[in-house]
Amino acid sequence: MSKLTLGSYPHMLGFEQLERLLERTAKTGNEGYPPFNIEQTSDFSYRITLAVAGFAEEDLSITVEDRQLVIHGRQNDDGAERLFLHRGIAARQFQRSFVLADGVEVGEAQMENGLLHIDLTRARPETVVQTINIKKG
Predict the structure, then answer these.
(1) 0.90 exceeded by the pTM?
(2) Please, what's the b/e burial string for 62-92 (b: 16 or more CB within 10 A of its CB; e: otherwise)?
(3) What residue ranges do the domains of the chain occupy?
(4) CATH number of the 33-122 domain
């Protein structure tokens, strides 16, 4: 069985980059931690919310590079100084990645009640009609 690619469709020209983007997204290796929501807040805006209970603002970093939004979390583990009888709240680091489409910009981020909210906006698409002249040959 051969792998079906976007290049297999003759009417879809120039989508090779989208195919590479989809492959990269599949390889990000995101686990289920921390859990997150993605909501559409308007026709051209979105919000990603991560449950980061126990993390302070200084424990988190948000970067965007090459259309990839990456959220890192690293808590200072002071567990060596404390004696836990049960430790169900892990102080583990995480990295959560999201691939952004062209035209999607990262807005502000805010912490609220153990939730990290990251707002995104998508540029409104312009409708362009172009007439191509036909030369006589």
Answers:
(1) no
(2) eeeeeeebebebebeeeeeeeeeeeeeeeee
(3) 33-122
(4) 2.60.40.790
